[in-house]
Predict the 3D structure of the following.
Amino acid sequence: MTLQDMLINGGIIVWILIGFSVIASTIILVKLWAFSKFSHKQAVSLSSDLEHQNQLNSQILSDIASQHSYPSSQIIAEWAHNFTEQHAKQNAFRQGQGKLFELGKHLKVLEVLAMIAPLLGLLGTVIGMIAAFQAMEQAGSQIDPSVLSGGIWQALLTTAAGLIVAIPIAMAHQYFERQLEAHAHHINNHLQLAFHPKSDQ
């Protein structure tokens, strides 16, 4: 069975699933590019530099932030001049949440596509089976088993297509979700270390 056979015999359901895969592939590529800006190595390095300072002040925070490219270092650099003030802390954490929101954009779409794709494939199979058994009923005693079996395997194509589309999307979604959780921890930790000096704790 070739891809052409699947497209011809799968009907509109397979074409919809192809559309799903195109949308998902676009989101995955965009998310890979977005997550490439968030290096775990840089995050750990920034945490280490902040933790090993006995006393933080505006100049030290600015110097540390300038040595790193992790996104939370940009927030620290922006608010380092008044890091002890309450409004600075609030704005810094708000910006951190904003970066995480941007990073997590469209992940819900991947989740929905991964959930709908196998169901859509199953729907196509059910519709195909109904058509196959209707043909069997109309044929009466003259039914050709090869016709019935051919109709069944054509119907099952959509289930296979749904799973083929859904599995990689689900894997990508889970990967991005775990990465998002890790970076949320990093950013929150950085801001806690920077804007809640040890002397305040």
Observations:
- The chain has a mean pLDDT of 85.
- The CA atoms of residues 11 and 178 lie 36 Å apart.
- Residues 145-195 form the longest helix (51 residues).
- The helical segments are 3-35, 40-51, 58-66, 71-79, 86-104, 107-139, 145-195.
